[in-house]
Here is the input.
Amino acid sequence: MHVASEYEGLAKSGGLADVARALPAALAALGCEVRVLVPCYGPLRDRDFDRLIPSLSVPLNLTERFGCSIRVWQDGPVTVYLLEHNEFFDRPGLYDDAHGPYEDNPLRFSLLTKTAFELCKALDYRPDILHSHDWQTALAGYYRNVHYANDPFFADTRVVFNVHNGAYQGLCHARWLGTIGIDPAHFTPEQFEDHGEINLLKGGVAFSDAIVPVSPGYASELLEEKTSHGLWRQFRTHQSRLQGILNGCDYRQWNPETDRQIPARYSAEDLSGKARCKASLQASVGLAPEAQQPLFGLVSRLTDQKGFHYLIPALHDLLQHPVQLVLLGSGDPHFVGQLRHLAESHPGQVQFTEGYSDTLAHRIEAGSDFFLMPSLFEPCGLNQIYSMRYGTLPIVRLTGGLKDTVVPLRADQSNADEATGLGFTNPVIGELAACLESAVSLYQGQPDLYAQLQQNAMAQRFTWHRAAEDYLALYQSLS
Ligand code: ADP
Ligand code: GLC
Here is the structure.
């Protein structure tokens, strides 16, 4: 039983949604019976999902119960339950609106997490594993170990906690303790307490049977002071239950040979379609039809995590060269303003779309020559994996999952037979600018080497099948 706040095709803000859909499907393909619980956000209420349980009463704390209903959707072999509680989930955003994060987020997502247990009981479905994702559902381990400690129904249920992004910790005021059902006895520095506030992620680490960051590289980083988002002591304390598992890529959706969202399909053997995708992308976003200039793409949440504070100055330098940029993203208004300015000051050379568009994301992956991903930290990262499959060389900062998936071309080019992209180490303008310059020289001065790297990248496979086998082995080790 997975419980998650996002699910690709239903509600998505980033890669969590991709994983929450693809991993259950891959586990099902290995023979597991997998079900998923997600919130029924406002727009989903109009979809044609059957109402399975019209009324489910969920006890969240010692005194309060919340009335919910459950809808159901069969997504291939995976049964998806949708938690309806309109007061909490019928809102303009998943986690926030123009005024910032919803103040009652701890309550909203605790209800989701607790409902996973009550739903299992209502359905008489005893999961071997309750698999939670990020701070939103981090309380699963606590509920299992405290609220249901003496409930024989969950005697054999183990809790696996995926850490997709340790920077989001579900920090909230201690006054929420009673409401979300945390006994004050557990409000300690070893469990939920963090500088006087509740830290849901920290408690999730303390109470889960397994803690799974989404790449081995990120798992190591969480144990180090500088790269652990402040939680290295907690991760080290529970290190014996920590194991990184690299995400996979859903190649049913991200494959240039079959992708219906791009104007022409192509393969490693015949890249003529990629040239058509580039021309079509340039035309559709209003860039000059320059086939010979390298086109740099970016699709991203606009947050500090993704390195915009040093990427944007480095792009100003890059634009001295004959290159083009196509950028898609939404998020921090500060970065939106800076990217708008970049585009307005380089008409015909830079195009920025503010917003969220799956189709444009696919077209950028297919139509670009390089993909920009200079993240400050990256638990796994999916876009660099998509890029490789589309023969679009990723330019990455070598951190977390980026380091685990991209083989950077060495300065002496001695690893041309295995390199799949370009990389640099420190998140500073100088190193990134040098890396971008080397991308331009590679593209314009060494087309054979560029083509070789493109072939290397397109041959990579990061399958969900492999990841699901790792998860299944972990599940079995817990039983
Ligand atoms: P993160 O989860 O940190 O945002 P990932 O690389 O793991 O980073 O996953 C990002 C996912 O969200 C990808 O599927 C990417 O295509 C998608 N995405 C991010 N921003 C946008 C956007 N503005 N429009 C369309 N898709 C986006
Ligand atoms: C998070 C991370 C990203 C990861 C995704 C899916 O959003 O920022 O690196 O790929 O989750 O696990």
